[in-house]
Write a structure and sequence with these properties.
Largest sheet: 7 strands, mixed
Distance between the termini: 51 Å
Number of helices: 5
Structural class: alpha+beta
CATH topology: Nuclear Transport Factor 2, Chain: A
Number of strands: 7
CATH architecture: Roll
Shape: globular
Order of helices and strands: HHHHEEHEEEEE
């Protein structure tokens, strides 16, 4: 027979139930939310390929006055912290060759809580390498957050893929 000690029984019960808690938080992300998250990621891809800086601006999370800036771009070779730094990075890369082509069937969205989701997307990026276009595979890892304006991208992490 399973027995919880009288002292600390509530704490023990909570500890036993804790693996179920993240699932409950993820339940508050609806099927419509998942569609919106996917759509904002695909709008980002379309804007990047079109070198549409206004399109990138529209998909990134806005800074809420009095709150930390949630936007970052973290790559192996460089990092950009803050929305304006990320926007400047996109302005710079849009001057050259840049195509962002996610495998639409490979996109995975994992809710982490009611207002946060992790996006995984195998993606081919074509960019200038030593003055010539080169297509490189990446696993894009991104964080989407729920904002008053809907779901927006907060973090972009391109991970080189084999």
């Amino acid at each position: 027979m399973f027995h919880l000690p009288r002292i600390g029984g509530v704490a023990a019960l909570l500890l036993l139930l804790s693996p179920a808690l993240p699932a409950r938080a993820a339940d508050s992300v609806s099927a419509n939310d998942l569609q919106e998250i996917r759509a904002v990621f695909l709008r980002q891809a379309e804007a990047a390929t079109a070198h549409d800086i206004e399109g990138i601006d529209a998909v990134l999370a806005q800074v809420v006055p009095g709150q930390p800036d949630p936007v970052s771009f973290v790559a192996r070779a460089y990092t950009f912290w803050g929305r304006e730094a990320v926007m400047e990075h996109f302005r710079a890369i849009f001057r050259g060759t840049w195509r962002f082509e996610p495998d639409r069937d490979g996109i995975r969205i994992i809710p982490l809580g009611a207002d946060t989701a992790h996006i995984f997307a195998p993606t081919r990026i074509t960019l200038d390498v030593r003055g010539a276009p080169a297509t490189v595979p990446f696993l894009m890892e991104e964080m989407a957050i729920r904002t008053p304006a809907g779901w927006r991208i907060a973090t972009i992490i391109p991970v080189p893929a084999p």
